[in-house]
Amino acid sequence: MNIEQMFLNPERLWWLLLIPLLVAAYVYLTRRKNRSGMRFTNTGVLGAVVPVQSQWRRHLAVALTLLSLAALTIAWSRPSGVDRVPRERATIVLVLDVSQSMASTDVKPNRLDAAKDEAKQFVASLPAQYNVALVSLSGNPAARMPPTTDRGQVNRAIDALTLQDSTAIGDAINVAMATLQSAPKAADGSIPPGAIVLLSDGQNTAGRSPTQEAAEAAKAKVPIYTIAYGTENGYVDLDGKREKVPPDKALLQRIASMTNGQAYAAENVGQLDSVYKNIRSEVGYEEVRKEITATWAGYGLAFAVVAALAAVSLGARWP
Fold this sequence. Notes:
The chain contains 11 helices and 10 strands. It is an alpha/beta fold and 319 residues long.
């Protein structure tokens, strides 16, 4: 984030250069005063005539005054901050792995059935006005449900998922991006913001390059939230041979990083539920910039009040 994004009038920040000049002037005058004070040899008489001032209170008053000046200068420059506000509408494409490795029972009763149940709970937790779409991830990814607000249709599509061969993560991202484009447009013709939630339990074995497709999603500013599902010890028996099926966490992490999404790992149902809650929080809000001049003006006023009290204390004679 550059300075122009943080302040509406960044050119006014140049006035902050006065503060180090004032500090230098204060140090110079303080040292000059101390040298002048050495001319008085009878300190007893001087103490009776001139009240002794607390050095630390004087320094504190000056420091608070300068802080007040800095805060007011920042306020004058009209700073802006980021606020998280609920999205009014969005489209979420849920990509679920249905490759043969999802038959592994390291997650009870098996990865696919547990993933289906948690996916339906996730869909139910999204705001009612959100469109939800479903894409199956296998060697031949396909859109199983176009974007819709009908949660019943989405749930039936999830229940209908069955195991298939291979894992083409890149192709699945490509299908998910095309599915996003079919989302209903707003009254003004704009496409609602979209995000992809991709759950996979294995390594890419076919199709397009996942990172190249992730790069295309990044260009379109579509974040991909990835879930590496299952344990390192998961296995399936295929054609009489036992195959280990650990999730490819490194690849999914790279996809999420490239698209400004988040990467998660879930080894059981409880962790998957927690992951979906985190994702819901991420996709359910958007960052909106707002001016926070009043906040910095308040800081300046607070520093000024404390500085004034410190200045008053300098002139008071304490018993």
